């Protein structure tokens, strides 16, 4: 009898990050997470994803929770499982590039508070925007023996995105010192046979472990995973069934069962997974009842494949058009999006390039003349302030939108003048609220939202509501 070579596929469970971001606008509070952590810790997941830009923002803004405190509690609970986060390159978890000292400090505090793996992406796939975060992770890894960097390729389609391009990018990622690569298919464009081709090519060109991240929306995701695993992908991102499918990830239990008894067998126990699913099912019901989970995000929507536009971008577009009473322009805008994308160098469509391209496409259609008006962000993209795009931008559009202006070819932090350390001046702005080092970083990323949270926290601690306080009369409601 021949011995079967075992290549168990790993699963990263997304229920504590992307799954609830995709299905319930990132509103799952820590108190819902904690009671199931012990059980989740027994599965043997490759990692549990639990942190990222939207979870951080929503914790402070809507849930009035300290995201650092959530991370520490999860770290306490997950004794045996690696915790993973998503990181927007030089933008960290925010919306503008930061100086390198802030990137270093954020990486250091993230790992110190419990993160093991940092997945770093850039909306233009400009690898220079990822280098500081990778270097910072490697530095901590050397000092502490913990921390690992994963560079994510924002997957997209277009003339420039050939197998050679992806292979070449994978080699560069290995050279830049990252520990693993993620194919981040945020728009759900990667179909099964193309995935097999891509994974095979990457495997031939890099020794790094390859992880695949895909949303279910277009309905082919589980098949994409099957073909990718057969082609040698090491880890797939899945969500426990009550928070799977629709705009979220393929279901964990389904993928575990698919590979059972094969060389890819995960070895996970379906009984433990069932306990986790049973735990989240009533919460899902509650979310459906309250409307937090809309049936609109469930099921299959093939439009993402047809238009190559991420689901979140489509729903943004619809609401922007509704506000303008221009819903009849939907199809025109959809057709304008690929043209705008070409004009600005054919970038992937992911935060923030998706919003920039989408909004400009709406402007172009509603104004009745292309680039009659341009958003500030679109101008910045043309100026090179986000970094370099894979293809050159349309010179006619540049001449019309930013005539005669200088354009940068530097990485985003330098293009926008963030060449000097800025952490100290950020701290000076917020020192009255500071209770822990991490507060400075919360404020750096989301100044107004963090300040509102700090005031709320102060009020909770002192029993004084700063917003309601009548300072002139010196009387405080307690
Ligand atoms: Mn995602």
Q: What is the number of strand segments?
A: 8
Secondary-structure element order, N to C:
EHHHEHHEHEHEHEHEHEHHHHHHHHHHHH
Give the CATH superfamily of the largest domain. Aldolase class I
Secondary structural class: alpha/beta
What CATH first level of the largest domain would be assigned? Answer: Alpha Beta
Query: What is the total domain count?
Result: 3
Mean pLDDT: 94
Largest sheet: 8 strands, parallel, barrel
- Spatial strand arrangement across the major sheet: 1-2-3-4-5-6-7-8
Indicate the radius of gyration in whole angstroms.
23 Å
Oligomer: single chain
Instruction: Write the CATH fold name of the largest domain.
Output: TIM Barrel
Question: How many angstroms separate the termini?
Answer: 77 Å
Poorly predicted spans: 469-477
Each distinct ligand: manganese (II) ion
CATH architecture of the largest domain: Alpha-Beta Barrel
Contiguous helical run count? 22
The level of helicity is 40-55%
Shape: globular
Q: Please indicate the percent range of residues in DSSP E strands (runs of 2 or more).
A: 5-15%
Brief account:
The protein has 478 residues and is of the alpha/beta class. It is built from 22 helices and eight strands. It folds into three domains: 10-296, Aldolase class I (TIM Barrel), CATH 3.20.20.70; 309-409, Cyclin A, domain 1 (Orthogonal Bundle), CATH 1.10.472.90; 423-462, no CATH class.
Summarize the helices and strands and which ones pair or pack:
Blueprint lengths: L9 E4 L4 H7 L5 H4 L3 H5 L5 E5 L1 H11 L3 H11 L5 E5 L12 H13 L4 E4 L7 H17 L3 E7 L8 H13 L4 E6 L6 H14 L3 E6 L6 H10 L4 E4 L13 H8 L10 H21 L12 H5 L3 H13 L6 H14 L9 H14 L9 H8 L11 H7 L10 H4 L7 H8 L6 H9 L1 H16 L16
Parallel strand pairs: 1-2, 1-8, 2-3, 3-4, 4-5, 5-6, 6-7, 7-8
Helix pairs in contact: 6-7, 6-21, 8-9, 9-10, 14-16, 15-16, 20-21, 21-22
